[in-house]
Amino acid sequence: MSRSTTDAPSLPATSPTTAGTTGRTSRGPKAPRTFEQANRRLKWLMLSPALAFVGLMIVFPLIFTVNLSFTDAFGAVNADNRYIGLQNYADALTDVRRFWPAAWRTVIFTVVAVTLEVVFGLALAMLMRKAFRGMRMVRTVLMIPLLATPVAIGILWLLILDPTNGIANHLLGFVGIPPQEFLGSVSQSLPTLMLIDVWQWTPMMTLLLLAGLTTLPEEPEEAARVDGATAWQRFRHIILPMLWTTLLTALVLRAVDALKTFDILYATKGAGGGSSFEVETLNVYAYGLTFDYQEYGLASAVLVLFTLFIIGVVVLLRLRSGRKSA
Amino acid sequence: MSLTRPATPGGPDRTPEGRASLSLAGTALSRRSFGKLLVAAAGTAALTACAPRSGTPSPDAPLRVMAINHVWSQAISAYFPEFEDMIGRRVSMQMLTADQLSNSYNVKLNASATDIDVMMVRALQEQLLFARNGWMADLTDRVEDTAFDWADFQEAPRDRSITRDKVLSVPVVTERPALYYRKDLVEGLGGAPQTLDDLLAMSLELADRDNGQFGFVGRGQRAGAVSQWSSFLYSFGGDFTLADGSSGIGTPEAVAAYEYYGRLLHEAGPPGATNMSLEQAMPIFAQGKAAFYVDADAIYSNFLDPSISTVQETVGFAPFPAGPAGSKPHNIPSWSIGVNAFSRMQDDAWAFVQWASSPEMVARLQAEGIPGARQSAWSDPETLASFPPELAETMRINAENGIGHDRPEVIQVGRARDIVGRPLVAGILGEDVGPVAADADAEFRDFLDRDNRQQEF
Amino acid sequence: MSTVATRTPGSPGPAATTRPPVVLRPPRRSPWGWLRALAITVVSLIFAMPVVWMIAAALKTNVQVTDPSVGLIFSPTLENFRSILADGEILRSMGNSLIVGVASTALSVVIAVPAAWAVGRFSMQRTGSVVLVARIVPAVSLLVPWYYLFAQVGLVGTYTVLILSHMFVSVPLILWIMIGFFEGLPVELEEAARTDGLTAFGAFWRIALPLAAPGTATASVLAFIFSWNNFMFALILADENTKTMPVTLFSFISYASTDWGGLMAAAALMTVPVVLAAVFGQKYLVAGLTAGATKG
């Protein structure tokens, strides 16, 4: 009789356990099959509401989006529409005025913001690694930006960065820097929003990496220290490699969210990403296509392309880390 | 929001001992709270089942009016009791901002919602699209009622109410651009400018931007600016589309108009102008920081309101200055009312439209300072008495010269405004307008091709 | 012979690195320690100051807010809060946020916790992953069909559709956290219960679930916070009666753009539950957020 045929990932052939990926206690050879088979109905019963929900809310709509992307749907949702094949995709991919700049902005925003978040997050995690008085308070402080509502954060920074009334220009004035337009300027808007994103999400990286750091074994570090390695050498050759998987996972998750950033961009610059579309990323663009232009067919095509892009990024990063999908 | 996938048997805080010690409290807590959760979930599910149910409207059901938050809506709501007595039904009006209203219409009408009866729409913005979607009831026969006097409506707004030979809305508020100016500042310069050249010269003269005094303020945010800019476009001799229907924004006249407005704001205007809609530009003039302001004449009351304005005594109103092609401001029905095609109270809804836009009501509202669309009201000196005399004269002159649209007359007004607005924003930012206008012209041509195909309905 | 030369002065011994609780350091004052403390202080200020500024601005008058030289010394006033709460719109939308948040969290817990137990207990990793796909797919790509489908059945603008869309975010989140919890529970407890005569479901209900209470609580709080913060879904799927706080806040920006005091007060109201959660639940929330960052 074979082992449970359902869902256990590949395991060492010798152990017929139903253990998870790490460290669960194993049972004897007979028990899992009886337990599994006896409770097959139960487990599907427990899982089915979640599966059904996901199916209804994702699978059907996804298929619907793909279908819609091949039509010229426009104006009203129950208006007639015709199939026009790949026309929408062609229109999107040849649109150098809105689509490609939006794609470019999406990439730039994500790369810069996430890189800074990883670097600062790692630095801060290293700083906070050893316990200190007030650590709990610092962790509390760190949690607030990442849990706060992006729209509220947008409003807050609109005030701080206001060219005439904001404290930022006031403080810059003390060090002799002339007042900047920040979110009021076409060229400065996207970089400013990147920095706001960094401000909001570095704590997330910090906390994730800190959790990773605290469970690293000390022996390798201790040994390196005894051998005379400097702090930087210890970091580069001992800590970083051990932290790598955590780092990469955090990176993937943050990157996916950064690609999809919407709230803070829309709250601060409004529809179309500002008068010169200066912060219009793919997400903002797709939103505008749908709800400002009512061009449902084209919007669906853009969304399909966007989704494929995100999946591509995830796959790429996962491949680079050499891990199998979790 | 991001998480990593848990795989290890708990982190530092979740030792078995720790859990066991929590379990005593946890057991009682979690079974009870789980039960509570179920009840909460069931309860809220029941709550949410209170979606509006369709069926024949009961006599108690109110007539639902969806309106923009506007002086007209506020004024007419004061007279609701009179109407309610007349038809024996309550009126319930919901006031929203323009964006919220658009959004609501999109959402509700796509669902063929029956919970709107009377709709306040912008004839130039959404009527064509709504008509194509079949969302507005045909009022053609109803307006023929002699007491209603359809012919009394001014020609331009009246034409705009008709789509594909069907009357779909009735205009209740009209709008023209007023040149708001500071009487004290123009005194030394010979009074309000009469030509666009003078306006530019005076704005530059009066600008003292280092000290926070701007020569000119106006809308600069892409979509909102286009409608105000249209008057400049017309006065330079251009239009969004040419007589043959092709794009007009690449013509020398259009480029001149782009450059002109761009110069006004770039050299004499406040910083960050490209982020300014009505809501941001208006306070700047109201607080005395600008010499000139061009925007809808309907907002004049803001400048006479002591709680927000420091220029009550010094504000002046002038007709739109003349450009190379004369003074050609827009004179448009900014807001109209129509009947939702899916409404179950079509007759009562029409009764409301009829009452709210009747000659008597329009005259009454105009006497309270709301510019309507009926010629009879405009000809009646009493109704004009509520406006400051200079403003009344301004409105009259502007109406005479007025062109009936302030944006491209297409179905996809949103996209069109974005295309047409690009050279405008470039000009305001001080960039070279020529190439941008040429590119926008090409984009607009493609757009018009597609839009014309959508127009076949 | 051990060398001591490379020991970084001021750092505590190795034993202290694994446990977060406070460790008393030797009373040596050393440059690195000071530098580190300074750096941490500066960083903490960078993250805390903007939020402090927001609350301060909410308590200032508009004149004071628009004058950047007025710092943190001023006499506070509650006028901004009074004025924005006056017309009831903000309160209504806070109520909506609360309703949608509680309902979507509750329903998500009901769906996701048993599913997490099943995935953890029966090692159904692959099936579990299908549900977690929801994490990767951008919600925006579902907005058009959601809007389409919900519009045609007339659900747009109801609480139902908001709750459903928020659950789309909460269910994977709670699943994610709870799978780890259940996997971490030793099987013996449940097995012992079953030998005592309980069914597998009984073991779940009476043993596993209570033990997972802290995890459930954490996951619920996080799910509620993300529902509270959710902007895009309500922006599109809610109407005037059901719109949530972020949407109200957003429209506030455009029509009250010069009322900075009011805007800040609204933003502060929005952020209150978050701050409360962070202050009181910091330990659990951090654990929930970082669950599984420590992979073997």
Question: What does it look like?
Answer:
Chain A contains 13 helices and no strands. By secondary structure, chain A is mainly α. Chain A has two domains: 60 residues, no CATH class; 224 residues, MetI-like fold (Orthogonal Bundle), CATH 1.10.3720.10. In chain A, helix 2 packs across helix 13 and helix 9 packs antiparallel against helix 10. Chain A is globular. In chain A, 50% of the residues are buried. Chain B is an alpha/beta fold and 457 residues long. Chain B has 18 helices and eleven strands. In chain B, strand 4 and strand 5 form a beta hairpin. The longest helix of chain B is centred in the first third of the chain and has 33 residues. Chain B is globular. The two termini of chain B are 46 Å apart. Chain C contains 13 helices and no strands. In chain C, helix 4 packs parallel to helix 7, helix 4 crosses helix 10 and helix 8 crosses helix 9. The chains are: A mainly alpha (326), B alpha/beta (457), C mainly alpha (296). Chains in contact: A-B, A-C, B-C.
